[in-house]
Amino acid sequence: MAEHGQGESPRRAYLDYLDREIAHVGFLPPFAVAIAALALKTIGEASGDTLFGRAATHWPTLTLILVGTVLTLAAAGFFWQQRGHLAWHYGKAARPVAPGPGESPPDFAWAQTTAAWRPYRRGFALLIGGVAAYTLALARAAAY
Predict the structure, then answer these.
(1) H helices within 1-144, ranges in order?
(2) Rounded Cα gap, residues 62 and 115, in angstroms
(3) What residue spans define the domains of the chain?
(4) Residues 6+ apart with CB under 8 A from 53
(5) Which of 88, 95, 101, 136 lies in the 20 to 30 Å Cα band around 17?
(6) Beta carbons within 8 Å of 110's beta carbon, 6+ residues apart
(7) pTM across the whole model
(8) How far apart are CA 3 and CA 120, in angstroms?
(9) What would the pLDDT profile of 42-85 be if each residue is shown by its tens digit?
(10) 4-15 pLDDT, tens digit each
């Protein structure tokens, strides 16, 4: 194995960090879509005097379920956007060539900034809002 130069060790550590984050964020969009799909499937197939049957026939409760679904799907979009940002910075940092004239070298501190994680935070806020809407809908259906 070739020895790394002085600047390669922080680059490798940063790339490993970004790779792990890309993998972690990668499971969140399918998870959020699965929550929304499960909620719609459960309500769509519900019948009778069950909790989900009451939720499917009570308009205010059904509205909350639809709001929860929209919020959860929007969360999946923000998680996907975060993954795209991380992958873009991974590619930028992994370039084997030196920056050309007028280009700046890769910024290894990007992932530590607040703006770097804005889609991630928005995604979690929307996911929590969606789950809260589902919970409130089921509580209303139970009381109905």
Answers:
(1) 8-26, 28-45, 51-57, 59-94, 118-143
(2) 36
(3) 8-95+107-143
(4) 46, 47
(5) 101
(6) 89, 116
(7) 0.79
(8) 36
(9) 998 988 888 888 888 888 999 999 999 999 999 999 999 999 98
(10) 445 456 778 888
